[in-house]
């Protein structure tokens, strides 16, 4: 059972996410950064994710497209600002359906007793952007993605 927590404090521009994974930190980091693994966990359960680009290095870009059964496509992209294996990834995140609303995401991994503590902070340009992300159902999609990441990381371990 997942111990996912999503903290959204009123009036702030950030979302803080924590979760533990039953896999070593280096394995979780590989699953989060190696292009051949990304499509296996990123996105909703009912969509297929296509990794258009995943240049996981400072200055590298990424673009993923989620394809729904009805033919709809939802694309997301960003730039990697910092990548320190196996402990941290800093990147931007933008939904192409709402251009100009960019978040800065910091993903941190800490190993404890063979398990990995994941902590992420997403900082939005405005409180309204942050609240729009929350109201879009991001917590459900996040939970689905992180559950899939857990399954993948356990399989890779």
TrEMBL record:
Signal peptide: none
Stored CDD domains: SRPBCC_CalC_Aha1-like_9
Domain Activator of Hsp90 ATPase homologue 1/2-like C-terminal: 22-152
Gene3D superfamilies: 3.30.530.20
Homology family: Belongs to the AHA1 family.
Name of this protein: SRPBCC family protein
Organism: Nocardiopsis tropica
Lineage of origin: Bacteria, Bacillati, Actinomycetota, Actinomycetes, Streptosporangiales
């Amino acid at each position: 059972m997942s111990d996912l927590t999503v903290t959204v404090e009123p009036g702030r521009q950030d979302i803080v996410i924590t979760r533990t994974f039953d896999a070593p930190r280096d394995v979780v980091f590989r699953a989060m950064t190696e292009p051949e693994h990304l499509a296996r966990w990123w996105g909703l359960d009912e969509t297929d994710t296509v990794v258009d680009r995943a240049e996981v290095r400072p200055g590298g870009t990424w673009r993923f497209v989620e394809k729904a059964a009805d033919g709809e496509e939802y694309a997301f992209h960003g730039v990697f600002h910092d990548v320190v294996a196996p402990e941290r990834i800093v990147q931007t995140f933008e939904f192409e359906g709402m251009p100009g609303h960019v978040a800065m995401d910091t993903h941190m991994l800490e190993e404890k007793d063979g398990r990995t503590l994941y902590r992420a902070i997403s900082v939005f340009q405005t409180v309204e952007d942050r609240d729009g992300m929350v109201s879009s159902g991001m917590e459900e999609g996040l939970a689905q993605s992180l559950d899939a990441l857990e399954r993948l990381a356990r399989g890779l371990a």
